[in-house]
Design brief:
Elements: E1 19-21, E2 24-26, E3 32-35, H1 38-41, H2 50-60, H3 73-84, E4 90-94, H4 97-114, E5 122-126, H5 135-140, E6 157-160, H6 165-169, E7 176-181, E8 184-185, E9 191-192, H7 195-208, E10 211-215, E11 239-242, E12 253-257, H8 259-262, H9 278-291, H10 296-317, E13 327-329, E14 332-336, H11 341-350, E15 353-354, E16 356-358, E17 362-365, H12 373-391
Parallel strand pairs: 3-15, 5-6, 5-7, 7-10, 10-11
Antiparallel strand pairs: 1-2, 2-3, 4-12, 8-9, 11-12, 13-14, 14-17, 16-17
The structure holds pyridoxal-5'-phosphate.
């Protein structure tokens, strides 16, 4: 069945899919599963979204890849549109979340280097953080399991407590360059930063001349009902990394920054072979078309309220297995479990609903943003049956 030639880095469920449509995935024998994970926050528009498929197939017939030695009109267009829609003035396209985070960290160092403060190089990060799997991002993230066996460890990160401004202030030194935070921690337990905390970080950054880096790899691209989650708080970062939902399933990422900070990068200071190629950019532009359609994000907010209400009712029905309050923001949802979250996730799967786990024994739901009320009802019904089965 499974191949002995794959490296053993994942514990995989004994399931494979051959087709996807909307929020449904289908196995070879056409058994449907409701995907409330969106492929870990990636397939935000569900599967086989016609506008995205059309953009990809049209571009595939014309030109997949040219290098960044040349102008790439789709890349210029997407950069213009992302900057128009956000705090940012400049964009660097990459291929994965970790690469966008890496770009953000490198840009912060370069910015201080070119502005005559090369001694500023450390970044304040948080407990519960996850920023990816590169050497730098496993150090920025919390979680010994990601670092085990990778000594010697890269230096340059100081860890504060998520939600605790005093703990951040206490870590600021003359060599501090930046603060990096997820507006909603995903892997770390779907913990949402309060608006006050984010505003406090912005204020500390301004007070001490630091850069504020937001990791919106998971929380961005409409996931919380705004294009970027930080819009809920009213603050803006200096640098932001985002990825997962950006290509709705096509691997792509972006590091966005203000004009002043972007001066840190000149020709040759950073680069990528694949990042921003025509195929990725065609898909990225098509995804943005949908996310910025009038009313689209409002409908995400509405369905999020509806799903959260249903999940709260589910907690009332199964108080021995799951509990309130729900965590997260919008359609980035953490359901605190009492029974082991892995057991709940596999019970859901047996009822045809795919869910994820997160730290703190959380069941994590990242449904496609296009999920309908009827589909929410069907998912809640299946989850209710799964929990009833577990209780029995
Ligand atoms: C998933 C994730 C990353 C890493 O993204 P990859 O594409 O797996 O490299 C970084 N930061 C956050 C917040 C994430 O959720």
């Amino acid at each position: 069945m499974s191949s002995k030639h794959l490296m053993d880095t994942y514990r995989r469920a004994p399931l494979a899919f051959s087709r996807g449509e909307g929020i449904y995935l289908y196995t070879d024998d056409a058994t449907p599963y409701m995907d409330l994970t969106s492929g870990i926050g990636v397939n935000n528009l569900g599967y086989s979204h016609p506008h995205i498929v059309r953009a990809l197939t049209e571009q595939a017939g014309k030109l997949w890849h040219v290098s960044n030695q040349f102008r790439i009109p789709g890349q210029e267009r997407l950069a213009d549109r992302l900057c128009e829609a956000s705090f940012a003035d400049r964009a660097f396209f990459a291929n994965s979340g970790a690469e966008a985070v890496e770009c953000a960290l490198k840009l912060a160092r370069r910015y201080f280097d070119v502005s005559g403060q090369p001694d500023r190089w450390r970044t304040i990060v948080f407990d519960g953080a996850f920023h990816g799997r590169t050497f730098a991002s496993i150090m920025a993230g919390d979680g010994e399991q990601y670092r085990e066996g990778y000594a010697p460890h890269m230096d340059g990160f100081d860890r504060a407590q998520f939600g605790n401004l005093d703990s951040v202030r206490a870590l600021i030194r003359e060599n501090t360059a930046a603060i990096m935070v997820e507006p909603v921690q995903g892997e770390g337990g779907v913990r949402a930063a309060s608006a006050e905390f984010l505003a406090g970080l912005r204020q500390l950054a301004d007070e001490y001349g630091l850069l504020l880096i937001l990791d919106e790899v998971q929380s961005g691209n409409g996931r919380t009902g705004k294009l970027y989650c930080h819009e809920w708080s009213g603050i803006t970062p200096d640098i932001m990394a985002t990825a997962k939902g950006l290509g709705a399933g096509f691997p792509m990422a972006v590091c966005l920054a203000t004009e002043a900070v972007s001066q840190g990068f000149g020709v040759g200071n950073h680069g990528t072979t694949f990042g921003g190629n025509p195929l990725a950019m065609a898909v990225g532009n098509a995804v943005l078309d949908v996310l910025t359609e009038p009313g689209f994000l409002d409908s995400v907010q509405d369905i999020a309220v509806y799903l959260r209400k249903g999940l709260t009712d589910l907690v009332d029905r199964h108080p021995a297995l799951i509990r309130a309050p729900l965590r997260g923001s919008g359609l980035m949802i953490g359901l605190p479990a009492i029974a082991p979250n892995t057991e709940i996730v596999s019970a859901f799967r047996q009822q045809g609903v795919l869910a994820l786990t997160a730290r703190d024994n959380i069941v994590r739901l990242l449904p496609p943003l296009v999920i309908t009320r009827d589909q929410v009802d069907a998912a809640l019904h299946a989850m209710d049956a799964a929990l009833a089965g577990l209780a029995a």
